[in-house]
Design brief:
The chain has 487 residues and is an alpha/beta fold. It contains 18 helices and 16 strands.
Length: 487
């Protein structure tokens, strides 16, 4: 070939690369199969039924596996979401379970109750144009698949000779315990109640989170080598200082939750038939009051009409539980509008489908009783929304002269919880804030006492399961570094 010919070829315009055909993506999520609303309002079986293998693969194929992967940053426990979803798309369910549990010891729980719509799914790139990938539903699918096909227990590191006491067996406690056990530390969980799981067993109803699922996740943590001591109220049996100085623990993680119920301080709150949501749900969930006179001796009688005050997930749980306990009418009273309700959209929708009656822009002012000291109704006032308050939501303002009465035989206050003061009262050196919550470093969980860490609701105030788990993961890393730095 001549020089001129070579030059001519070398000067030809570059050949354009062939573009890959654009992959079609379904704009909407695979719908979650659910019980019929009329049927489920009369039973405590799980409402959401879970994906089939075909549905899970179809949904997994919607993932774009984008370069920046913002969903990982949106997950408090840092799950490699595109990786485990990609394995589902390839039908490698065992591999997906392993990838998921690299970061999360409780996936069957998170897949059911974690508010993914406010975290990983909120930042899903696909969600900018279409519905985001149903990350939570896929997490639940793969966790349930593993529970059905056999749970693998990873090898743990060699014993370090260090020991950690975990106070509370809720999501934060189970997470920190599992992570530390994998690193070779001896871990003992102290649980005040007669069953492990914390809020997962006493606070979340069976129809949202079956107790058998929680029990299996607790069993998995135990298989990692974690010891669980039930009926141990720390602050009474041992103080924090006694755990370290007398019982020989090298570190303590406090995750006792926020279990002190709030009331409105209105007349009539001491009447029989008025419950805090804590007591109402604990009786039903942990003490099986719905089986009273058959298998369990804890009574709970709701009557024909129930009023539940509050707009969060706990209020939805209480309302839907009352319906299943036999109430003919359940009214949910909330002082703001539907837009401001803090409950998850799907929980509000489930409640609406089941027939819960919403009394929005309404606030109780007095609980009314009969001559026997039992609640017979509640006097309420209509509200309107004014200027935003410190929460960013518009402040509810009473409408003068708009009072009315709602009849009820049971009233449940579901307006939030505070910090139980037992730990702080028996550990006077421990720093708490003006609301009684433990002061802990956000990046490590460290408190002002060396070797004592804290996380979850006892630090944050009432928050979510996944945030407590995130605190557990962060603190596990910090506790491990602390233990290994000690002589």
């Amino acid at each position: 070939m001549s020089e001129n010919t070579e030059n001519q070829v070398g000067n030809d315009p570059p050949v354009a690369k062939e573009k890959k055909p654009r992959r079609e993506v379904k704009p909407t999520k695979e719908p979650m199969p659910r019980q019929d609303p009329q049927a489920r309002g009369k039973n405590f079986n799980e409402v959401a039924l879970g994906y089939t293998e075909a549905q899970a693969v179809s949904e997994a194929e919607r993932c774009l596996n984008c370069k920046k992967k913002p969903c990982i940053a949106g997950c408090p426990v840092e799950i490699d979401i595109p990786a485990f979803i990609g394995l589902i798309a390839k039908r490698d369910f065992r591999g997906a379970a392993r990838k998921l549990k690299d970061k999360n010891s409780l996936p069957a729980i998170c897949g059911r109750v974690c508010p993914q719509e406010e975290q990983c799914e909120k930042v899903c790139v696909l969600g900018k144009k279409y519905e985001p990938v149903a990350i939570g539903r896929l997490e639940r699918f793969i966790a349930d698949w593993e529970l059905e096909h056999g749970v693998e227990v990873p090898e743990v590191a060699l014993p370090t000779g260090k020991s950690v006491a975990v106070v509370g067996s809720g999501p934060g406690g189970l997470t920190v315990a599992g992570d530390l056990a994998k690193l070779g530390h001896r871990v003992v969980i102290f649980e005040a109640l007669h069953k492990a799981g914390g809020v997962l067993v006493y606070g979340i109803p069976e129809f949202r989170l079956p107790k058998a699922i929680v029990a299996r996740e607790v069993e998995y943590v135990q298989k990692l080598g974690v010891e669980i001591r039930l009926d141990h109220v720390i602050g009474r049996i041992y103080t924090i200082e006694e755990l370290m100085n007398e019982e020989g623990f090298d570190a303590v993680f406090v995750c006792t939750g926020a279990g002190l119920p709030y009331f409105m301080n209105i007349p009539g709150e001491n009447l029989a038939g008025v419950y805090s949501a804590n007591e109402f749900l604990t009786r039903s969930n942990l003490m099986k009051a719905y089986e009273f006179n058959r298998h369990h001796a804890t009574p709970i009688k709701v009557g024909r009409r129930v009023v539940v005050v509050g707009g969060g997930n706990v209020a939805m749980d209480s309302s839907r539980t009352a319906l299943r306990l036999g109430a003919e009418e359940v009214h949910n009273v909330y002082r703001r509008s539907r837009v401001e309700m803090p409950a998850r959209d799907e929980e509000i929708e489930n409640a609406e489908e089941e027939g819960i009656i919403f009394q929005l822009l309404t606030n109780p002012v007095e609980i009314l009783g009969d001559d026997k000291g039992r609640v017979r109704g509640v006097r309420c006032i209509r509200m309107e929304l004014g200027e935003p308050d410190s929460s960013g939501r518009r402040r509810p303002v009473p409408i003068e002269g708009s009072e009315f009465e709602l009849e009820c035989e049971t009233l449940v206050m579901a307006i939030g919880n505070g910090a139980n003061p037992l730990i702080s009262q028996t550990t006077p050196k421990l720093e708490v804030n003006r609301w009684g919550y433990i002061v802990a470093d956000e990046a490590t969980g460290k408190t002002n006492i060396p070797g004592v860490y804290a996380g979850g609701d006892i630090v944050r105030g009432a928050a979510t399961v996944i945030l407590a788990m995130g605190d557990g993961r962060v603190s596990a890393r910090a506790i491990h570094e602390y233990l290994m730095s000690k002589e």
